[in-house]
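Practice problem 4.
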């Protein structure tokens, strides 16, 4: 089981907060890069139970929560994990890989020190105002799903809408009730947020294959009940929709839903085709 430790700079240097001495040189590089940005601070560490990695939890030095970065340190490399993708510049976003369904990461080996510093500076500059105005929230099971649900609530306050509901008519191959992320019942229109786990083996190859089968089953059963099914790709949410103003977000989503509702199609995949390929 992984062990956590709070960082106390009065007791020892940050480079001593590692799970294995073979990570010392990499930790020194991380410290040097973090020192280039005086606003950042490591608040807590996590150690692998077998000493294979160390994770530093990073935020602003004047306020800890929510954490904005993870830095995972290995013997000869480290990865920077961005916890709030709305504030990551598009170029870095498109050239990063998924850490989990909410975060993306970059590998130190693929960048120069100057590039790493620039990426961190841009990210910090973008997130700073919202962070100190308490507008940055810790990601949950699916931040993108909650983001879309909040817009839908504001757009259709008088509509009968289910969020994360399971239905007896939507059975899996194992005879379990499956869930729809959002179901606007008055429109007979469902919305599913397609995160990276729907395209890449985030939780392993078997999980991916099972999820692909489930997705196909949902499409078929929704069509059989004349329910329009809208897949919203998480990449497009993060690179386009989430970066707009609140009014623009509502307008874009309302147009998307209305156009789909008035079409003859029962399925629509709203995505950036080029984003589907993992870098």
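Answer key:
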């Amino acid at each position: 089981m992984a062990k956590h430790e709070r960082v106390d700079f009065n007791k020892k240097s940050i480079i001593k907060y590692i799970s294995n001495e073979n990570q010392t040189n990499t930790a020194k590089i991380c410290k040097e890069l973090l020192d280039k940005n005086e606003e950042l601070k490591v608040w807590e560490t996590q150690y692998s139970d077998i000493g294979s990695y160390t994770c530093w939890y990073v935020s602003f030095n004047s306020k800890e929560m929510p954490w904005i970065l993870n830095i995972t340190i290995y013997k000869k490399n480290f990865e920077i994990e961005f916890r709030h993708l709305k504030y990551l510049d598009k170029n870095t976003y498109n050239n990063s890989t998924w850490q989990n369904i909410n975060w993306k990461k970059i590998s130190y080996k693929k960048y120069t020190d100057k590039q790493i510093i620039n990426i961190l500076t841009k990210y910090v500059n973008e997130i700073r105002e919202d962070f100190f105005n308490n507008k940055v929230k810790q990601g949950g099971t699916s931040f993108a799903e909650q983001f879309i649900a909040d817009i839908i609530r504001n757009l259709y306050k008088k509509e009968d809408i289910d969020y994360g509901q399971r239905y007896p008519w939507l059975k899996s191959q194992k005879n379990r009730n499956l869930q729809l992320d959002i179901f606007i019942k008055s429109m007979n229109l469902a919305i599913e947020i397609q995160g990276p786990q729907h395209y890449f083996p985030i939780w392993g190859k078997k999980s991916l294959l099972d999820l692909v089968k489930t997705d196909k089953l949902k499409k078929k059963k929704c069509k059989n009940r004349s329910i329009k099914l809208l897949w919203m790709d998480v990449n497009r949410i993060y690179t386009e929709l989430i970066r707009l103003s609140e009014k623009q977000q509502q307008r874009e989503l309302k147009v998307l839903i209305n156009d789909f509702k008035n079409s003859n199609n029962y399925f629509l995949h709203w995505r950036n085709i080029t984003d589907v390929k993992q870098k």
